[in-house]
Design a protein that fits this description.
The chain is globular. The relative contact order is 0.14. About 35% of the residues lie in helices and about 10% in strands. It is of the alpha/beta class.
Length: about 325
């Protein structure tokens, strides 16, 4: 087992993790963006280096017209270069990813996800694989149910290309204190049932779950929980457990507040989840900094579990040393 790093410096933790099997990649960040949060690609590489992250999957997060909003509050997160005169912004776009990879070869694998509402969405993704060596379909973040036929066609194209699909799930309704459903205008993907139907419809496609609507389902009281980021003990019966057991094409990244909160809210149950599903979980940040790293280094993770989460599952899904478009 990796020794309890509570008494170790962060450098000591990284050294122990790295020496376990002398890997080429110590840590792979499987959920990241560039040219956002007020930082360019150089600042992002500096942040990766500060946390000894060797490789990152960088993802688009496009905002099509039907879900675009004026860039006012939160505009600091966006690249001003892409602001339109009417105040609208297209989100985190593919051209920025290409620029980052060109500036820092060997540090990034590219993701791309076109709007499924476009008639040529699947063709666009396949073209991106062939022309630009896109390796991941993501981030999928659209105001459509996962099992919409247009989404399924895009997911099947990703499966044919051997590209995992990174899904953002935010539910359309949350219960209030009385249990009445309250509409959430910024929903994406639908519900856990929509996700399950997509898993069934696309068995050859690997899916990576992410975001509050996904991680709330770690607990059996998700349907009664009014908070977007639930806290407190994990109740038995969480539907994520059953989905992982039933569908070998389901994975998850631990990124953002949602992933970290889910495994931290009930430390004992979180540790059990990490070890039980170690072959399906991926390290990811979806931001800068080391909050997730700091928490994981306080756990006595078995060496094989740590290696799987930090890099081996990512390599199994997307081999950094094999180009799909040139294979």
């Amino acid at each position: 087992m990796i020794a309890n790093p509570g008494s170790l410096s962060i450098i000591g933790f990284y050294e122990e993790l790295s020496l376990a099997d002398s890997p080429r990649y110590r840590i792979i960040d499987t959920h990241q963006h560039v040219f956002w949060q007020g930082r360019d690609d150089t600042a992002h590489i500096e942040d990766m280096d500060a946390h000894q992250i060797d490789l990152a999957w960088i993802l688009t997060s496009e905002a099509p017209d039907y879900q675009a909003q004026p860039a006012t509050r939160g505009a600091f997160a966006l690249n001003p270069l892409h602001m339109s005169p009417d105040g609208m912004h297209p989100g985190l776009v593919f051209s920025d990813l290409l620029k980052a990879r060109q500036n820092y070869p060997g540090r990034y694998l590219l993701g791309y996800c076109p709007d499924p509402m476009l008639p040529a969405a699947a063709d666009l993704f396949e073209a991106a694989v062939a022309m630009y060596d896109v390796r991941i379909c993501g981030e999928w973040k659209f105001r459509l149910p996962f099992d919409d036929p247009r989404c399924l066609e895009l997911f099947k194209a990703a499966g044919r290309a051997g590209a995992p699909v990174v899904l953002h799930l935010d539910v359309p309704y949350l219960p209030d204190e009385q249990g009445l459903p309250i509409y959430q205008p910024h929903w994406f993907g639908g519900t856990i049932e929509n996700l399950e139907r997509a898993l069934i419809a696309c068995p050859q496609t690997n899916f990576i779950g992410h975001a509050p609507g996904f991680w709330r389902e770690i607990s059996g009281d998700a349907a009664r929980e009014p908070r977007q980021y639930p806290k407190g003990p994990i109740v038995p019966g969480g539907r994520l457990h059953g989905l992982f057991e039933k569908y070998p094409n389901l994975f998850a990244d631990l990124s953002a507040n949602s992933g970290l909160t889910a495994i931290k809210r009930d430390p004992a149950q979180g540790m059990e989840f990490l070890t039980r599903f170690a072959d399906r979980l991926l390290f990811g940040r979806d931001n800068y900094g080391g909050d997730l790293l700091e928490y994981l280094k306080t756990l006595s993770l078995p060496a094989k579990v740590a290696a799987a989460i930090f890099r081996e599952n990512a390599i199994r899904l997307v081999n950094p040393d094999q180009s799909r478009s040139r294979a």
